[in-house]
Amino acid sequence: MTRKQRRLTLIGVAGCVLAVALGLVLYAMNDTIVFFNSPADIQAKSVQPGTRIRLGGLVKEGSVQRGADQQITFEVMDAEAAIKVNYKGLLPDLFREGQGIVAEGILESASVFRADSVLAKHDENYMPREVADALKKQGHWQGEADAAPKTQ
Amino acid sequence: MLVEAGHFALALALGLSLIQFLVPLWGARANDPVLMAVAPTTAVAVFACIAFSFLALTFAYLNSDFSVLNVVQNSHSAKPLIYKISGVWGNHEGSMLLWVLILALFGAVVAISRNSIPMRLQANTLAVQAAVTIAFLLFILTTSNPFTRVVPAALEGQDLNPLLQDPGLAIHPPLLYIGYVGFSISFAFACAALIDGRIDAVWARIVRPWTLGAWAFLTLGIAMGSYWAYYELGWGGWWFWDPVENASLMPWLAGTALVHSTVVMEKRDALKVWTILLAILTFSLSLLGTFLVRSGVLTSVHSFAVDPERGTFILGILILFVGGSLALFAWRAPMLKQGGLFAPVSREGALVVNNLFLATACATVFIGTLYPLALEVLTGEKISVGAPFFNFTFLPLIVPLLLLLPLGQTLAWKRGNFLGTAQRLYAVFGISLLATMVMFAFTYGGPVAAPLGIGLGLYLVLGSLNEIVSRAWSKGTPLAVAWRKARGLPRSAWGTAIAHAGVGLTVIGIAATAWGIEAIGSLKVGERLKGGDYEVRLERVIPRVEANYREEAAVLTVFGNGRELGTLETMKRLYVTRGMPTTEAGILTIGLGQVYASIGDAQPDGSIGVRLYHKPLVLLIWIGSLVMAIGGGISLTDRRLRIGAPAPAKTMPPNAVPAE
User: B150 to chain A, minimum CA–CA distance in Å?
Assistant: First the structure.
């Protein structure tokens, strides 16, 4: 093999691997990415039932109902809309009524959401960022009332 | 007083780093040995100053000095001693201090091993290292000062985030940082080579132990973090493709590629420019990880405080060093003497393939991690790129690499024989295939991924074993002779085989998770929950009060196929000071598998929610990582690489090193 052929082999193999990787990335981008929506977004954008989304908002006070075998329903709301969430499993430690959460799952109809995971804040100081931003956008942000004392 | 002294020492370290940066650089330019000799002295002094400063902060924590803001925010007088110590780096300011401490430590070690490194290279390297130190010391002193006082002093502290009150905090961050920051040395050596415009096999021989050491620690750090998340978060997952995890995986992938490419450079004097670029990229990815985790662009338990000023500062550092080093690369790399090309079918060819796949896999993780951030900045649209994306893109790139691994490891240097090599692996391949089919038959109808993955893992382990055996033993060799031959093999050959076997073990552990079983239910005392072959019975719920928390502990008896196997305890804790609840998972280890249970809130009817998992072979995931790191460690003890080892005799041509 001449020097040139060897170099071409290397470039060819590298090109193939990169092309495959690019193809995988583009395909996966179309298929696996999940959009974040607040209840108001779902109405405004009329998200199709059956779509996989992340739903973020506040847990409505008094809406949490526990059924048999850890079957749980609650409502997630923002300033304009609320949506009913069904979930089977253990809720995270910092899940409380009136607090911000992010749930991931399938939108079953315009007002019912089936979650397969529910995330709350990592510790008591922070609101999930998406939820905080969504609330800020709607002008319902009460400031970082419960945030950690700022340094300095 | 001590706190002020610590603050002062940090400022002094900044001043000394400036000297360490400027003087040796000038000395190397002017070829003045006196000026170059300033580098090692100042590097040790900088380390001493930062170490003093770190000890001063530790002392404030030990004494619960609540006149220091950092201690007030992250400590509590009732906190156990181990968390008072580890709490020093369980917050933003302290963890950055640990970061520069390790940075300075690496500089000091390079300074001490002066005999084995050419003077110019050492001077330039320490100067680059000092530049990084300056940037981070400035960051700490201007935006994240851990020594800020509060007046009047607080009576009691606000306690450490309960998720961090775990022995994991004592181990995970130091290991991870030694790995992350260790790559700064490879980076500094690469920049030094570019500044000097000279690079050769000696450079590779000097740099390799540093890279290998950093890589081994990063491996341990990531594995430890993964195990910690597994038992602490109570979700039973060991890897979430969370951006923070990806931030550590990217330097690991690039670092793994770097460890392999330096071998090629050392043995065959080739791949020079690529190795330099890879060294720069690896540390750039470490910096990127620091930015992602520390700036607060991600919400996570790792981002202690959200402060835009800090984020901007780290972004500035990131741009300066990545941009600066890449500009240096673009300017100087064309001047470096290119190494020779080589045959595609050869050990070095295989290592190129390794680099190609690892770098590409790293790029896909990079895209998946940064795309959502970029999209949000550009369009405001919020998306999440989760496990499905990474499984879809990362796995197809890693699996072929793993399939080729035993082949590449067996190929000869320079000119390999593909068929001959494949023949040496017939038996290994056959056994693995057979094992896969048997597992298939026994678990028919179950997940397909598990037998396939375990077969792949087995192939890797046996392939590594085969490599050692075939080099020591051939038909007719008495066992005693074979044993002596095996012991006589270079340590780096052993290290390679062990590290690759570790990869195989981890693959087996990961694949076996497909056989895992999950069950959820509400239990009253005496009731049972069944998950696959395993079953738990809730025995009792015990309330307890400890120094800084109170908890409800559920005691569960575990049955396997009706036989009692033992008990486990899972807790729901409430940390009083922060009013924060946490879940502590209960784990019963059975062989290499685990029965894992965690509890939820108590229900009005007196029952509690229980989540039960059975995870077969799950421990192999972390045992495999440990084995990988041990392999790296053994490779480090190779005579050739020992730091401070005398250089090989001049009469020996570079290619006379026995090919492996």
Answer: 9
Check whether residue B344 and residue B490 sit in a common domain: no
| 3-state SS class at B535 | strand
From the CA of A151, how many Å to the nearest CA of chain B? 8
Assess B306–A contact: CB distance below 8 Å, yes or no: yes
Contact A70 B163 (CB under 8 A): no
**Largest Cα span, chain B:** 84
B521 to chain A: which residues are within 8 Å by CB?
A: 69-70
Q: What is the predicted pLDDT for the residue at B304? A: 55
Instruction: Select from A32, A36, A93 the Cβ nearest to the Cβ of B389.
Output: A32
- Is residue B102 a part of any domain in this protein? yes
Cβ pair A70:B521 closer than 8 A: yes
Band of pLDDT at residue A19, cut at 50, 70 and 90: very high
CB pairs below 8 Å between A and B: how many?
135
Query: In terms of domains, do A43 and A18 share one?
Result: no
Q: What is the SS3 assignment for A40-108? A: HHHHHHCCCCCCEEEEEEEECCCCCEECHHHEEEEEEECCCCEEEEEEECCCCCCCCCCCEEEEEEEEE
Does residue B266 share a domain with residue B328?
yes
Domain boundaries, position B240:
166-385
pLDDT, tens digit, 9 for 90 and up, residues B385-406: 888 899 999 999 999 999 999 9
Cα of B299 to nearest chain A Cα, Å: 6
Q: Is A18 on the interface with B (CB under 8 A)?
A: yes
Question: Would you call A28 and B382 a contact, using CB atoms and an 8 Å cutoff?
Answer: no
Q: What is the pLDDT of residues B212-264, one digit of tens each?
A: 999 999 999 999 999 998 988 777 788 988 888 999 999 999 999 999 999 99
Q: DSSP assignment of B415-448, as one string? A: S--HHHHHHHTHHHHHHHHHHHHHHHHHTTTS-S
Contacts of B396 in chain A (CB under 8 A): 20, 24
Does A104 contact B at CB distance below 8 Å?
yes
Label residue B615 exposed, middle or buried (CB < 10 Å: 0-12, 13-18, 19+): buried
Provide the pLDDT for residue A134.
67
Answer yes or no: do B301 and A122 touch at CB < 8 A.
yes
Residue A86 located in a structural domain: yes
Give CA B659 to chain center in angstroms. Answer: 30
Q: Are residues B510 and B530 in the same domain?
A: no
pLDDT for B652 = 40
Touching check for A52 and chain B: CB below 8 Å?
A: no
Structural domain boundaries, residue A26: 1-32
Residue A138's pLDDT is 65
Q: Tell me if B522 and A68 make a contact (CB, 8 A cut-off).
A: yes
Residues 113-152 of A with CB under 8 A from B: 121-124, 126, 128-130, 133, 148-152
- Residue A26 shares a structural domain with residue A47: no
Rounded to whole angstroms, how far apart are CA atoms B71 and B165? 15
Do residues B431 and B462 touch, judged by C-beta distance below 8 A?
yes
Strand order in the sheet with B593-602: B517-523, B608-615, B593-602, B586-590
What average pLDDT does the segment B496-511 reach?
A: 96
ipTM of the complex: 0.81
Domain count, chain A: 2
For residue B613, what are its two tokens?
């998992």
pLDDT for res A145: 38
Beta-carbon neighbour count of residue A12 at 10 Å? 11
pLDDT at B266: 87
pTM of this prediction exceeds 0.95 = no
